[in-house]
Design brief:
12-stranded parallel β-sheet, DUF2807, 67% strand, Putative auto-transporter adhesin head GIN domain-containing protein, single chain, mainly beta
């Protein structure tokens, strides 16, 4: 697999698809759009996930802190991706699953759903027929 302590940026757009196998990196940014799909296993310092346009991410592994921005009927499955703290902005009928041990902060709107695992402290603003549930 790929190993680096440097910052890493991954971008997928226009109905792209890629599998990540055993990635270890420093702070990592994922820009996923246009019906693209990303899956695999990663270990990163901190992560930022910007997912839009009916795209999806399904990852396992871990990070310290993450931020997720999901919009436009996107899916972010991080059930098997352990983090300390997560900040989420979820809109436009998107679905996000987070496994956090510390805190989850953010906003869920527009008929979106946040599912969380673990027992984090929650500070979530909800609007527009959205739901938050524990699994």
């Amino acid at each position: 697999g790929f190993r680096s302590s440097d910052r890493l940026e991954l971008e997928a757009s226009g109905v792209s698809s890629f599998n990540i196998d055993d990635l270890k990196a420093g702070d990592t940014v994922f820009e996923i759009s246009g019906g693209s799909h990303v899956l695999g296993g990663i270990e990163i310092a901190n992560g930022r996930f910007n997912v839009s346009g009916a795209s999806s991410i399904d990852l396992e592994g871990y990070a310290s802190d993450i931020s997720i921005e999901a919009s436009g009927a996107s899916h972010v499955n991080l059930a098997n991706f352990s983090v300390s703290n997560a900040t989420v902005t979820i809109s436009g009928a998107s679905l996000v699953t987070v496994n956090a041990s510390g805190t989850i902060d953010g906003n869920v709107s527009g008929a979106s759903r946040l599912t969380y695992l673990g027992d984090p402290a929650l500070t979530i603003e909800m609007s527009g027929d959205s739901t938050v549930d524990n699994r």
